[in-house]
Design a protein that fits this description.
alpha+beta, Nuclear Transport Factor 2, Chain: A, 6-stranded mixed beta sheet
Amino acid sequence: MMRICVVIIAATLAAPPLVAQMPTPRPEDVGTIDGIIRAFYDVISGPAGAPRQWQRDSSLYIPGVRFVSMSVRQGRPVAQVSDHGQYIANTNDGMVRNGFFERELHRVTRRFGNIVHVFSTYEFRATENGAVQGRGVNSIQLFWDGNRWWIANATWDDERPDNPIPADLLPRRP
């Protein structure tokens, strides 16, 4: 039993820390809530043919981050859960082939200590100034580790006729 414990401890100590494997983030991306939310949208947006900024994107999240994309099929809610690699595999080809621009329309932020919940209302288009193809709400959980902001997870749902965005998650009209 002692030999097994020694082997486990030695293997744990020899393994590189997960954070060391992460790309170095841009300070402006992770230094503020505004910066990390701006980067969250910026990294996936771009014209057709342009590669997305996946390395920069991965610097925003904790290791093992989960993305949850909600939809409805045959009248029932469906959650597609993915890690960062699966998200890239599921979305990259379409974003690069067709172009994809997502931008924040409105944000509701709730903070307690070092944790933050952001409801970020978005719209997306195929070209930067093209027709809006859809809207929805991102639910983003963040935390501050004393040095930087991290996104712990993101869940989103698109607007549908039976799922309109509520007024409190839309920009106020003058």
